[in-house]
Amino acid sequence: MTKYKVVEISTVTDEEIEKAVNSWVEQGWSFDGLNFAMRDSSKRPAMAFIFFTKESSG
Fold first, then answer.
1. 0.85 exceeded by pTM
2. Phi, psi (5° rounding) for residue 38?
C-alpha cells in the first residue's frame, strides 16, 4: 500500500524547501513532486507543496 504525504511551505526559499525535503527523506519518505502556489501581484511563489510517498505493509 502506498502512503502519501503533502508538506506545505509558506516561506518559499531554496533553503526551506531543501530543509523540508531532507527532513522527510531521512524519515523514509520518497520525494514525489513539488508545486507552487503563485500570487497575482508577485513573481515569487506564495506557498510550496511538496509531495512524498512511502510504501507500507498495511
1. yes
2. -100, 155
Cα dihedral value 18, 28, 55, 36, nearest 10: -10
Single-letter amino acid code for the residue at 23: S
What H or E segment, with its residue span, contains residue 16?
helix 14-26
H or E segment to which residue 39 belongs: none
| Distance in angstroms (rounded) separating the CA atoms of residues 37 and 48 | 6
- Which residue(s) pair with 47 in the sheet? 37
Residue 19 grid cell: 530543509
The pLDDT tens digits for 7-45 are: 999 999 999 999 999 999 999 999 999 999 998 888 889
> CA-CA distance, 17 to 19, in Å (whole number)?
5
Q: Who contacts 22 (Cβ-Cβ below 8 Å, separation ≥6)?
A: none
